[in-house]
Write a structure and sequence with these properties.
Radius of gyration: 30 Å
Structural class: alpha/beta
Strand order of the largest sheet: 8-13-12-11-9-10
Helix content: 25-40%
Number of helices: 18
Largest sheet: 6 strands, mixed
Length: 507
């Protein structure tokens, strides 16, 4: 008796050649709907699924393969005499190969204006059921869900060279594929922000040379149908392959630069912004970012929110940078920057994601899930707590410092003036220590500057250090039992202080 292959695919890539080769290997082909038509057009004989089930496709194709003649032929264990006798008694023939890929649910929900009814109609039922049945029976059934595997499967089937281990690998790919498919459906339909089970799925972008350190392995994955700025969809125009640490730092730079609507540039080192500048032109913005910390920017990553022009490119070329991220590069800028063959140039859509997303952090044996920190000064009513109010320029600079401190590892302090950061104190175990680092970095330029703190001052020592360095205005969340001590210290030194009542811890 001939072996049987059941083919039912949405993605017709490579189908005709695959069907022809199976026919040449003396497989009897069974198919459905559009797949059957495509096989017939290729000149290959094929049975209709209704010829096997002796039952018509019904309900607009919703029910066509859900039948014992299909699933009995897939799930019967060839080594089980009772199973095989039952098949013979019922007149069911075994199915030895299944090639199925699913209704394009991901592509459907990615379409603008798609309705829920349309999405639901693209939830495949028969396909995943056949795939799972065939994968469960991988010792007896070859199952193919990825057209890129067709050639290898044909080679393995010739002279019965397809091993049990190879069939197992094909089966495990099936279970990953159906899990991915179901996770996308669950995410699309789920309205609860934190359901009883949290299911996520990501698709591989690339294998990385190593992780944070050479002894660690790593890969990069992307979220399906993510809309907006993402390194997972970046286009690399020049330079070496990205590393794990490159991606981490580049993402940190991207998050900061997305805060700004005016031309802005952000330099990042070890996931903390070391220089941020805003200007009327990109060149002005980058110049300010560079001046914010001309030492730390060396070997860093720069993100910009405008097309890179020749003037800005020429200035960036003067120092060693690992990566430059921008929405685009002019041809003149590319001609300048590609002279450095190892300099990675990435273009990224700078559109902020519309929908609030979750931030995932792994812990031993678990996962922390929270909303991303989208809080801004537009979401709060600022409270001037001191006798003196900030000047218009100070308020402008406080806004920039607050936008940056949100992205600095806590405890975090940012000192800024005239549309640029002057000093950043990041990740310290005490707040006054972070302030001293930022103020020391700012040096004499701290005269007339402003300061932002990601959390409240537990005591007035940070205010005293700021006032001594020449800081004229401070923005912080407030909320300490000793807020008044800090307010009194500000009043004593003529420093304005603004409470946001919003904290920006970043651990």
């Amino acid at each position: 008796m001939k072996k049987r292959a059941l083919l039912s695919v949405s993605d017709k890539q490579g189908l005709a050649a695959f069907a022809k080769q199976l026919h040449e290997l003396d497989y009897e082909l069974i198919s459905t709907g559009g797949t059957k038509r495509a096989i017939e057009e290729a000149g290959v004989p094929v049975l209709s699924i209704s010829d096997v089930t002796e039952f018509p496709e019904i309900m607009d194709g919703r029910v066509k393969t859900l039948h014992p003649s299909v699933h009995g032929g897939l799930l019967a264990k060839r080594s089980n005499e009772q199973h095989m006798n039952q098949l013979e008694d019922l007149g069911i023939q075994t199915i030895d190969l299944v090639a199925v890929n699913l209704y394009p649910f991901k592509n459907t929900i990615a379409k603008e204006g798609v309705t829920e009814a349309e999405a639901i109609e693209n939830i495949d039922i028969g396909g995943p059921t056949m795939l799972r049945a065939a994968a469960k029976s991988y010792e007896d059934v070859t199952v193919v869900v990825d057209p890129s595997d067709y050639d290898n499967v044909i080679e393995g089937l010739k002279n019965d060279q397809l091993t049990s281990q190879e069939r197992r690998q094909l089966a495990t790919k099936v279970f990953r594929h159906t899990a991915n498919y179901d996770a996308m459906i669950a995410e699309y339909l789920t309205e609860e922000p934190y359901p009883e089970t949290y299911t996520v799925t990501y698709e591989k972008v690339q294998s990385l040379r190593y992780g944070e350190n050479p002894h660690q392995t790593a890969s990069f994955y992307k979220k399906a149908n993510f809309s907006g700025a993402s390194l997972a969809s970046a286009e690399q125009l020049n330079g070496k392959e990205l590393s794990y640490n490159n991606i981490q730092d580049a993402n940190a730079a991207l998050e900061v630069v997305l805060e700004f609507t005016k031309p802005a540039a952000v330099a990042v080192k070890h996931m903390n912004p070391c220089g941020t500048g805003v200007g009327e032109t990109l060149f002005e913005a980058y110049s300010k970012a560079y001046e914010g910390d001309p030492i730390s920017i060396f070997g860093g990553i720069v993100a910009l929110n405008r097309e890179v022009d020749a003037e800005t490119a020429a200035k960036m070329k003067e120092i060693f940078l690992e990566i430059i991220i921008a929405p685009s590069f002019s041809q003149e800028a590319l001609d300048i920057l590609t002279q450095k063959k190892n300099l990675r140039l990435l273009t990224v859509d700078m559109k902020k994601p519309e929908a609030q997303t979750h931030k995932l952090t792994s812990v031993h044996g678990g996962l922390l899930v929270q909303d991303t920190d989208e809080g801004s000064l537009q979401d709060v009513e600022l409270e001037v707590a001191t006798d003196r109010e900030p000047t218009e320029q100070e308020m402008h600079d406080l806004q920039l410092a607050w936008q940056v401190v949100k992205h600095v590892k806590s405890n975090a302090i940012v000192v800024a003036k005239n549309d640029r950061t002057l000093g950043v104190g990041a990740g310290q175990m005490n707040r006054v220590g972070a302030a001293k680092i930022a103020l020391d970095q700012a040096g004499a330029q701290a005269q007339g500057s402003v300061m932002a703190s990601d959390a409240f001052f537990p005591m007035p020592d940070t205010v005293e250090a700021a006032a001594e360095a020449g800081v004229k205005a401070i923005i912080q969340p407030g909320g300490s039992k000793r807020d008044q001590d800090s307010v009194d210290a500000c009043n004593k030194h003529g420093v304005a202080m603004v409470f946001t009542r919003m904290r920006h811890f970043k651990h």
